[in-house]
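So, can you check what follows?
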Amino acid sequence: MTKSNGTATRLGTFLDSHRPYWWPCGLLILVFYASASAQIACVNCTPDPTRGGGQPDLTDERLHQDVVPQSTLLRQELVTSNALRAPEKAQRAVQKAARAIQDNQSSVAERELSRALQLYPDYALALTLRALMNMAQKPSDATADLDHAIRVDPSYGLPYAMLASIYNDVERFDDALPLVLRAVHFLPSAWQVHFELARTLFGRRQTEEALKEVTGAIQRVASDQTASHEGRAALHFLRGRILIDQHEFAAAKLEFQMTVSEEPQGTFGQKSSQIIAKLESVANP
């Protein structure tokens, strides 16, 4: 056995013993989708008259640049015919629900989403937001809502990415692949979607392709002023994990160091510190 293979074997044993931490992406995905969905809701909805402001012209080419200039996902997410068919009261209910999600007011969000779906049962955005709220604790309910959203609004990209994320979390990588590829089709420049594709490919042991995707996502996130430290840390963490599988230990260590730099006290940062220590111990037994 070569030194490189021996190092990889010892690291593999260490990583497998801590497996739950190698996909600690649920919170990251929830934070991203909460922000993205809320902003999409505000773009698509008739504004709440109690909050002031005029209704945006949905045909204006500047719409996504003016309303949400920094989000790579929102610049691409189209206002679909399904959303435009929603009754005004349903749109307002979704807008209130999206704001409530951002403010951690789950009971308000649930009430408003129920109201929206009573008025328009096939409202893909409302179904997607309800799935968002259920992804962590009720994944089967979230899956049903996302399947419904995709069926009634197949050109809406967000549900594909969310459903792929759920499947990635339970290691159903073959089921995740066609979904995340559809998400990439609708949202080709969104770093979050390429991150999800990298997770899928890595789970399928397509490490070269996974490395390409996560590297591209890191390049894209550099220009996203809305990206959180946690999001950036997740990208470097995943890239480091892939590099370990490729026996690129020095490069992997740099990625984990960047993860710690981005989020020293968070889950990604703490686990990266453990991996760095293990890398150093196996390199110098």
